[in-house]
Amino acid sequence: MEGGTGNVVSGAPLGAPKLDFADALKSSLDQVSAAQSASQEMGKKFAMGDDSVNLSDMMISMQKASISFQTTIQVRNKLVSAYHDIMNMQI
């Protein structure tokens, strides 16, 4: 039996698919959009008097959508800041 980690290169197992940054970003944005859409739909159902939607579920859904949106904004701000830092570096 080998004593090393023969299956692992740089912390990632061999054969694991590489995650593209653009794909990860798009997936994250799609999840935020889906959370906002679900929250809006739940709010509409509650406003129309649908008995299957209660106030606490609607409020939790709205808060989850808000938190995910705020997190996305903060990540975007960090990316823009890093981009500006890189662009202002002297070579």
UniProtKB/TrEMBL annotation:
Coiled coil: none
Domain of life: Bacteria
Keyword Cytoplasm among UniProt keywords: no
Subcellular location(s) of the protein: Bacterial flagellum basal body
Sorted UniProt keywords: Bacterial flagellum, Cell projection, Cilium, Flagellum
Keyword Oxidoreductase (UniProt): no
A Pfam family that the UniProt record links to this protein: FliE
InterPro entries xref list: FliE
Family, as annotated: Belongs to the FliE family.
Protein known as: Flagellar hook-basal body complex protein FliE
Gene: fliE
